[in-house]
Design brief:
seven-stranded mixed sheet; alpha/beta; Metallo-beta-lactamase, Chain A; six-stranded parallel sheet; elongated; Rossmann fold
Amino acid sequence: MKKQVINNVYWVGKVDWELRKFHGNEYSTHKGSTYNSYLIREGKTVLIDTVWDPFAEEFVENLASEIDLNKIDYIVANHGEIDHSGGLLALMKRIPDKPIYCTANAVKSLKGQFHQDWDFRVVKTGDKIDIGNGKELIFVEMPMLHWPDSMATYLTKDNVLFSNDAFGQHLATEKLFNDQVDQCDLFQESIKYYANILTPFSAILRKKLDEIISLNLPIDMIATSHGVIWRDNPMQIVEKYSQWADDYQENQITIVYDTMWNGTKLLAEKISEGISIGDPDVVVKVYNLAKSDENDVVTDIFKSKTVVMGSPTISNSILHSVAGFIHYMKGLKFKGKKSAAFGCYGWSGESVKVINEMMGNAGFEVITEGYRNQWNPDADAQKAAIEFGKTIAKA
């Protein structure tokens, strides 16, 4: 069922209430998602993006019930990733000669995925197409936000920026607009989306935001490819992105650990206690990796000024859960964050050293040699862990 966005612009996407994992199993979507596709009906009829391929046939049938598919003049593919382009194969079987406007890299992506030689029309930043009634589509390349092929499309007069993945969030809802949904959910899913997907590209994003602003395009709506459309003060999410892209942190310290026989867990709790004593104003979060969602943990690390990692020693190293998580953080390329390490051991005790090396290689500033304890922490060891927490708070 299509829904009116503004004037002759309609949402024709799909709400996926059941989605719980995305990008394979890399990203958790506790609240589902939407795949937003848009239909513009002016002098020319334009379809912007499609849906994920499991919903391709449903999408095409729904679209055909709203409009004669042959009356679609242009298709815009802002991004070749399958959650946006997945409906193309089914659609192009019905209208194979329609032109697809996209970036040069998107041609490579779409050909690589679908192995079809469709009528691709390559566009660059500033290119325009006239769609009638005095309106134009203006294209803005957005490479690495978050693929090399990404772009945004701007509709003049209605002042809508179809931003694709930028400014989106994984949030299933029948409501179209940002002012119609729970604001806590909206901004939590927005910052989680940024922290886990866009953080590595923050430097690029800062430049692109400046470029978009320099175009002097009035923006009354930002129509994303996931989640809601920003119509109420749409620039608020642009302002948030500007903050998040600037090596973002709050007055927060996050402790992340895994444990074998709960000795390292006890240290984590005592270190947390010490941090709170050392700085009563700091927010402290504690996560056991074995019991926590990694994307939610990363969202809190994104907010943090310091990350305290813990693991017992096993096989002269650390638990694979901790090692894998540090590897994940390394790929996110966090900047300006500090780290410390802790852990229990029985015999050799290398875990703290291993964590420090890995965190340093991941771009964190290691602020202390760390705290390690042999065997199960006794009363003295617990007091020492509290003191270690105080030291971290002061650092």
